[in-house]
Design brief:
The protein is α+β, with helices and mostly antiparallel strands and 351 residues long. 45% of the residues lie in helices and 12% in strands. The chain is globular and about 70 Å long.
């Protein structure tokens, strides 16, 4: 069955659920599965209206009986069950377009290539932790008889959930929104979505005139390349919101260990340093470095002579690790190049 027929059935499914999709929009048949125009569309036009009844979250009637530790797990269980039902699922027109089987076939290879490329970076550490977490969650959900799928499929559905969740307002649960979830990202997006105050429907609206065959994009938020690569599998050659985030810890042999731990806890400082695109520390990170680098009680939380050497050692070590990574894949290259550039800016600023 062709993707055009699948899309027609999906369109009809949205319409029967009292939703709306503009007649001059199609889902691309290429790998990216983005949204494209088939004709010129004026500015501030509703491109799609998705009724709240099709917004998938733990408040939906179809998920009320799913009891899990997290909202994300509930979404994974829901998708795995609906996937197993195939065309008997009420959500089948959408599930079919998610192409879960292909996702499972390709995901392991893609993720392993990514991990092998960035193993020595902070992204590599995050991917390792995520894989270990997935193994634990999979075992728990299987033992609880909440899912009955293989681990590869479980990982694929987890990736689908992470990469398609919309950042709804804080008072709303993690949500998947059919159709809008096919829109790709741009910091210069030509469309945006919002929740209608009266109907609670989600509306995707054009923000300017859209030309024929133009891709419809939304903004996923001000995410760094590391976040984009971790969550969605892509990075940007130029990302104004990119940053370097390095985990830090105290040596158990530090003579000021207890004092430093107490102050870090009192100030509620996260155990990591964040450098922005210009190589500058955030205020929280700057204060954390003052604490970590102090060698005497009097200099804790003060600018001290060990401040710069501490940062230089940390950054040079991370730069050495980055140089061990492979940049053969284009998105990996974007990520690594930007990480190295920011680190070098920090080192230059320290001079």
């Amino acid at each position: 069955m062709s993707i055009d027929i699948d899309y027609a059935k999906f369109y009809d499914w949205i319409r029967k659920k009292n939703g709306y999709i503009h007649e001059d929009i199609k889902i691309d048949t290429k790998e990216e599965r983005g949204l494209f125009t088939t004709n010129t569309i004026e500015s501030h036009i509703a491109l799609a209206i998705i009724p709240w009844s099709l917004v998938v979250n733990n408040q939906h009637a179809d998920l009320l009986t799913i009891r899990t530790d997290t909202e994300r797990q509930a979404l994974i269980v829901f998708l795995s069950r609906e996937y197993s039902k195939q065309d008997e699922s009420a959500w089948f027109p959408w599930i079919k377009l998610l192409n879960i089987d292909k996702e499972a076939d390709e995901l392991l290879k893609i993720k392993m290539n990514l991990f092998n490329s960035v193993e020595h970076s902070t992204l590599g550490q995050a991917l390792t932790a995520r894989y270990q977490q997935l193994e634990q969650e999979y075992a728990y959900l299987c033992q609880s008889e909440m899912i009955n799928i293989n681990f590869e499929l479980f990982c694929a559905i987890d990736h689908i959930v992470w990469s398609r969740i919309l950042d709804l307002p804080e008072n709303e649960p993690l949500s998947l929104v059919p159709f809008i979830d096919f829109a790709n990202h741009s910091f210069n997006a030509n469309a945006r979505w919002f929740i209608d105050d009266t109907t609670h429907n989600l509306i995707l609206r054009s923000e300017r005139v859209l030309k024929i065959d133009e891709e419809i994009t939304i903004c996923y938020g001000t995410k760094s390349n590391e976040e984009l690569l971790y969550l969605y599998g892509f990075a940007l050659s130029t990302n104004p919101y990119d940053r370097v985030t390095l985990p830090v810890s105290l040596s158990p042999d530090d003579a000021l260990l207890e004092d430093k731990l107490h102050l870090v806890k009192e100030l509620n400082l996260p155990p990591r340093l964040t450098f922005n695109i210009n190589g500058h520390l955030t205020d929280e990170s700057n204060r954390l470095v003052k604490i970590l680098s102090a060698q005497t009680q009097a200099t804790i939380d003060q600018e001290n002579e060990y401040y710069k050497p501490y940062l230089r050692n940390l950054l040079n070590e991370y730069l050495d690790n980055l140089n061990l990574c492979s940049d053969q894949e284009i998105f990996t290259k974007y990520y690594l190049d930007s990480q190295k550039l920011i680190v070098q800016k920090v080192l230059d600023n320290l001079k």
